[in-house]
Amino acid sequence: MKIFLIGFMGSGKTTLGRKLAQKLGYTFADLDERMCAYTGKTIPELFASLGEDGFRKLEQEVLHSTQKEENLVVSTGGGTPCFFDNMDWMNKEGKTVYLHVAAKALAVRLEQAKTERPLLGNRTGEDLLAFIEHKLAEREAFYQKANMMVSGLDMTADKLLLYLEAAQLK
Ligand code: S3P
């Protein structure tokens, strides 16, 4: 069984994914971390050297490399579901969970963590919020294809586990 956590940057995919994997006794994979380990570069370095197109190809390659693994929780990058057929691929390979967080809350969280997220550039305050609102609206149709949508704001691994069991997604 594989569980893919999807959602915007700052929605808490990595923190929650790691805890969920621990509870389930599954392996945890963070796609960004795997891309960095695979190339020996940081996310901003990968964006700078490959451009966004190259970054998305590498991201898909690393996503596909999870195919051979079993009992895995995968935290994807915020853009992963929105390129190629990645969302359909994940829905075929396992169960997908969308961690939904409203744009205003994302803006507060992302204000603190912009440097490792090249898409956000130097935006702050109202600019940052407007960018997030726009990008989130663009991406929502992809995210909505998930098997399950939960609020990312107050989500815990225990709660998510209960939801997954109730929906018979695990
Ligand atoms: C991106 C999200 C990032 C990372 C890259 C691009 C995006 O991952 O993959 O900076 O397009 O939303 P997180 O969602 O883990 O921040």
Spatial gap, N to C terminus: 7 Å
The CATH topology is Rossmann fold
What are the secondary-structure elements, in order, as H or E?
A: EHEHHEHEHHEH
Enumerate how many helices there are, as a single number.
7
Beta-strand content bin: 5-15%
Q: Radius of gyration, rounded?
A: 15 Å
Which shape, going by the Cα principal axes? globular
Q: Can you list the strand order of the major beta sheet?
A: 2-3-1-4-5
Bound ions, cofactors and other small molecules, one mention each: shikimate-3-phosphate
Overall tally of domains? 1
The CATH homologous superfamily name equals: P-loop containing nucleotide triphosphate hydrolases
The percentage helix is 40-55%
Summary tags:
170 residues, alpha/beta, Rossmann fold, 5-stranded parallel β-sheet, 52% helix, 14% strand, globular, binds shikimate-3-phosphate
Quick recap:
The protein has 170 residues and is α/β, with parallel strands linked by helices.
What does this structure look like?
- The chain is built from seven helices and five strands, in the order βαβααβαβααβα.
- With 170 residues, it is α/β, with parallel strands linked by helices.
- The protein has one domain: Rossmann fold.
- The protein has a five-stranded parallel β-sheet with strand order 2-3-1-4-5, sandwiched between helices.
- The longest helix has 22 residues.
- The radius of gyration is 15 Å and the shape is globular.
- 34% of the residues are buried.
- It binds shikimate-3-phosphate.
- Shikimate-3-phosphate (S3P) binds next to loops.
